[in-house]
Amino acid sequence: MSDGHGGTARRVVVTGLGPVSSIGTGVTDFLDGLRAGRSGARPMELFDTKGFEYSNGCEVADFDPTRWQREVATEDVGRATQFALAAARLATADAGLSAEDLASARTLIAVGTTDGEAHELDRIVEHEVGRPVADSPETMARRVPVGTLSAAVAQEFNLAQAETITIATACAAGNYAIGYGLDAIRLGEADIALCGGADAVCRKTFAGFYRLGTIAPEVCQPFDADRKGILTGEGGGILVLEALDSALARGARIHAEVLGYGLNCDAHHPVAPFQDRIADCVRLALADAGVKPGEVDLISAHGTGTAANDVTESSAIRDVYGKEMPRTVSMKSMLGHSMGAASALGAIGCALAIEHGFIPPTINHETTDPECAVDCVPNHSVTADLRVVQNNGLAFGGNNSVVILGRYES
Amino acid sequence: MSSPARTPVIRSWSAISTLGIGPEAHRSGLLTRALPEPDPTDAFAAEHGGSAAVIPSFPVRTLLGKKGTRSLDRVTALAVATVGGLVTGDPTDAAPFDADAPVAERGLVLGTTTGSAQSMMDFTRSTFDGEKPFFVDPAKFPNTVMNCAAGRAAIWFQLRGPNATVGGGRVAGLHALNYSRRLLLTGRAETVLCGAAEEHSPARADLRALTDPGDTTRLGEGCAVVEVGGPEGGPGLAEILGVRFGMARRPEDAREVLADCVRRTLHDTRVAAEDVWAHLPSRSGGTESEAVTGVLGTDFRTHTCDDLLGDTSAAAAMFAVVAALVHAAEDDSAAGRIALITAIDPTGAVGCALLRPLPAP
After folding, report:
1. A78 and A132 both lie in a single domain
2. CA dihedral defined by A286, A177, B188, A172, rounded to 10 degrees?
3. Which of A229, A249, A269 finishes a domain?
4. Which CATH number does the domain housing residue A400 bear?
5. Can you give the pTM of this predicted structure?
6. Can you tell me the ipTM of this complex?
7. Whole-number Å distance between alpha carbons of B81 and B279
8. What pLDDT, in 10s, does the model give residues A44-55?
């Protein structure tokens, strides 16, 4: 492993991808899902949906944590942490990194999340109100602290010197984590960063979005005139970020380069997005990446499929790009809104799109809303030569983060 | 590592705790080690003051103004009020700023354990209480997301710079410090408000009783925020020399993992063991002190604050940072030497920070 202290000009590349999602787990399966325009929507089963008039979501069906966890006992951690662990195992295997490699490098682990293990808090409440719950309150309570999402990854690989941080910036948290990994490596303070996000569906968040009228009854239709909202989803996405010198020294396969990112805050409204500040965030990311708007070939939108998000976000994109807007897709049409995992899975999708020369589609699309008139690559993926791709993450609290990935060119 | 010329500096701080509201109350409480009497007219203090180290009086509507305060939960109000004390310069005035406030480009980084467990669990409980599971209060929904406090504080004071919420329990304050430091070193922000907040609540007490039934420490609450900037902003209170972390696989490994973390930090920042002026543990009388003694011997001061403030969890390490600033200003032997802040979280995460107190201008 390199121990270079390269300073601020250090280039950072993606050498490992670990997706755990409702449309596929692992690079091969996830890539197939994106190419095929697979839908993760199905009736949710992880919590009692009785009393809700509709309850489709994008759960990771048949997830088996014992396939991935070798060191951390599965009963010690909640479902979101299990996703983070599975994603980290997948990503490090994809990168060809062993636990010893990680231990001998300066490794940062940054996991973003919206709800952490709120699912366990839900279940403690269920226990309180006298409903049957499989685990004891003591067991569930131990899983709750949000720091566990990143701490458990270090414990799984036995990394006593790792820096582990859980970033709880809601639905932009995956991009925040990628940006934090990028900065730590650029500053010469880390050589390898396992970063991304994880979340599990939970009753609290479903009920909240449902009450706000933002849950779609059947499917998620971003940018469609008839869009009805989000589908709550879940999953995990971890990317291995690595200093270029480290990746080259060990002959690693490079999926893409992290060109830059931007982050800012709306300071405007607790839940509604704010066009001007989203546009500013895109500009910050492009400047950090040293990329002009005309050089961007594809945007992976936050694209939740709510009335407000899609108009506001596409308007912000237009503010930056003018009439020459790049094709703008929403992977949430397939994955649902996997919350803290969303922009991490989006970034993984972007890296695969660059590497394999295609654009993932926006499925469930019938008629584009003239108020968010983007070319969303409806329903079917297309081949495309992609050099620079932008991945958006927007969140409650006005937390915006935009990541720019590029094709690696030596 | 960064050159010394770029070492970020803590310029000012504020705090709200069981010692009172604002830096004067907090400083005098730390130095005299006297706790103020709870205000009998404060309903929360009257209810919980007997069992926990709560804020003696926290009149939210007086501090923050009447508009928009009804839906704030306690941890959010704590964060808004503490950040407000710092940006207005008056701890009793946290009224909202207009859109073109002078603090617009400042960043805000806030540490947490799990946001507000009370808000999250109350919201879930309301899905079981009503005729329909979705008969919940939509105004309370944002409180159930962990970045609520940082997002609300940004709205309150028009802070449009980088805004992050970092989870890490007792180590969260050190993560906030390091996150802020990196925002400055990468040029993403010129000034960052960096803090950590924890509320007392029945839900939090219940959770601790489940996870640590043997822990009888008084629970505490509060928020501490420091303003961090580059050295070009003029003299400050202390330089942030370095922040490092580690991870223990088992609780019994925490002492050695923290000791290793301290050794690495001293080495990387080129600080000699004898240059350490004081150790400020996030939790006194236990593993943190053993770990530090193992590395440094005993020739340094120890300043504790959790014995006054109670177990403030996510806020504990940031309160230790503030204690370093307070005690250094009172101690001639601190100048030019180093304060060591440490923290261990029940998850196994450990961290430490080295600060160099600066002489008063």
Report:
1. yes
2. 70
3. A249
4. 3.40.47.10
5. 0.97
6. 0.97
7. 29
8. 999 999 999 999
